[in-house]
Sequence to fold (241 residues):
Amino acid sequence: MRLAIISDIHGNLEAFQEVLADIEHRDVNDIICLGDNIGYGPQSNEVVLQISALKITCTMGNHEMALVDKRHLDWFNPTARESLLKTNDLLSDDAIRYIKRLRSFHVFFNCRFVHGFPPDSALMYLFQASDSQIRNIFGMINERICFVGHTHDLELITFDGNKVKRFPLYMGQTDLRTDQPYIVNVGSVGQPRDGNNNAKYVIWDSTENIIDIRFVPYDVDAVANKIISAGLPRMHAERLR
Fold:
């Protein structure tokens, strides 16, 4: 089984389409999305409708959560809140209906998929979790691998029975051990924050027991200009570059 795991597209249609094109050449059986398809970028509506049309299984991110329940808007900083409110006005009824149906997590193929932190949080960041919390989570969930997004940064966390270990992830393949559990942060398609502005996603090969970290170039300047033209916060355009 080869799964492509994508996350944090954030209305960046160009990045999303380039990632889909890359996936087409990778002999992938299925695609799973970890949420935050909206906000920041200029084409949230188009991204959501394409995910829906392609029947990509998707979890709810914190940006979707704030759209569904406006009380969560207080969780965001002022600039992100402004972007979300403007994004809400750009979404069609079909897109909003789709977002409201999203679940907080999915379990497939002995893997758990959640936006922020297992078992089902869309709000908690991976870097906020202490080693003791991570040990407890590994003891709580049945799945050997959990895929998360939310931080927009690639990371691998494992537990050898004694110590929690954290590693950065880089472009290319990483072997996983079959006798250890993992949390894999798959980075961001639409707004990476790891110092490299290529779109990021991960392919999990359950047969070979490897993850393949994909870096996909796209037209960053075109998206940045669309953000500004749409009247969205300029900060989110500059952050792409």
